[in-house]
Amino acid sequence: MTLLATVGFIMVAVFMILIMTKRLHPVTALILVPFVVALGFGWGPQSGKWIVAGIKQVVPTSVMLCFAILYFGILIDVGFFDPLVNRIVKFVKGDPAKLCVGTAILAAIVALDGDGATTYMVTCTALYPLHKRMQIKPMILPALCLMQVSIMNILPWGGPSGRVLIITETSVSQLFGALGPSMVVGLVWVCLVAYYWGLQERKRLGIMNVEGVDFSAHAGEDRKDRPVQSQYVQWLNLGLTLGLIVMLLKEVIPLSAMFMIAAALALIINYPKVKDQSRIMSEIAPDCLNIVILTFAAGAFVGIMQGSKMIDSMAKAMVLAIPESLGSHLGFISSFLSIPGTYFLTNDAYYYGVLPIFLQAAKVYSITPVAMGIAALIGQGVHLLSPLVASTYLLVGLTKVDYGDFQKFTLIPCLSISIVMLIVAMIFGHITF
């Protein structure tokens, strides 16, 4: 392993240790850790350009997250999600176990569009007040959302799968005909984890008497200054939201532009008066600012890793880590390597840099491209916890949990998803030891 690759892996590990032990805030760690490394290698002058290049990459994502938070913040303020929350309250009947399982199911359904940010915003904005009022552990809601998205993100229209289909030159029916059972069992596994957490919460909290309890987003607050929208306006909100989802699936226009337009329309529909528009924007502004700062900091982190070619060196090191004597077990081994691979590297770096080399080696041992494609996607169970994934910062922002604490709470459950999916793939004979 080269010095640059070694430093790259150590750098990401140091970042995680610093935020988990609360020695540094994620923003300062994302910026200063790679910058110190750059200075150590004598890249001081170039590092500024790399940081700017990395920030430019995340600008569309930052804009999308900012205006998406504004859009869903408006819907929360006018009580758009209250009917959904009331239905869920009737279903769970104050039982934490039912709420946790219901959260997992709702997250999986919303995640059908393959977009993590949208799933987080819809699921968390709808269920956060309910989880908070029932005093469920704050980590459970974001953990269940992220775990379900990590599986649903593998759907054919998800980003990782698109890359794998291109590199392996396999068809959707070939890859997902084989991967389907692993995904289904993975989804069921998350629901079982949700039930286990729910039983723990039921033991801790008991079953709550929900009669007469207000679970709306503004329960306990004075709503005299908040608009109570007519059914007509709420139907407009529903139409706007459904239209947004359809456009999201069809990718008619870029996501950032889509949410900018949607947020502007939501402001006009729900707040005809300019003073009310100013009020809601000032209330939501802190959440928007926190997420934008985090994504820009993540852009600086990625920018230095890419500009210094550190990611390329790390990718090559992963390929060289497999001795030739173990080549016949390449499918099984690459399944495990995809876990740290998609965590330490970006999806592009792993799927375009590492996977093609694995594929060439697999031909020598008669391992099929489908098997290698499945192996490459196994690591997605942990990928979303990577500090290089911007949507995770949105998730912790929406649920108001600490990023480092969230990593510690969710890492093992997410790792279990990859292991469960690998076991199922081996049972069905798609990956052999």
List the SSEs and their pairings:
Layout lengths: L2 H18 L5 H15 L3 H34 L4 H11 L3 H15 L5 H18 L6 H13 L6 H10 L3 H34 L25 H20 L4 H16 L3 H34 L2 H11 L9 H15 L2 H18 L4 H10 L1 H4 L6 H10 L3 H25 L6
Helix pairs in contact: 1-2, 1-13, 1-19, 2-12, 3-6, 3-11, 3-12, 4-5, 5-6, 5-7, 5-9, 6-7, 6-18, 7-9, 7-19, 8-15, 8-16, 9-16, 9-19, 10-11, 12-18, 13-15, 14-15, 14-16, 15-16
Model description:
The protein has 433 residues and is mostly helical. It has a domain at 60-156 and 179-208 and 215-300. It contains 19 helices and no strands. It has helices at 3-20, 26-40, 44-77, 82-92, 96-110, 116-133, 140-152, 159-168, 172-205, 231-250, 255-270, 274-307, 310-320, 330-344, 347-364, 369-378, 380-383, 390-399, 403-427. Helix 7 packs antiparallel against helix 9 (172-205). It is globular. It is a multi-pass membrane protein. Pfam families: CitMHS (PF03600). One of its GO terms (cellular component) is membrane.
Compact summary:
This protein has a domain at 60-156 and 179-208 and 215-300. 76% of the residues lie in helices and 0% in strands. It contains 19 helices and no strands.
Structural class, from helix and strand content?
mainly alpha
Q: For the terminal residues, how far apart are their CA atoms? A: 25 Å
Summarize the main sheet.
Answer: none
Mean pLDDT: 86
Indicate the low-confidence ranges by residue numbers: none
The amount of helix comes to over 70%
Give the SSE order as H and E letters.
Answer: HHHHHHHHHHHHHHHHHHH
- Strand content is under 5%
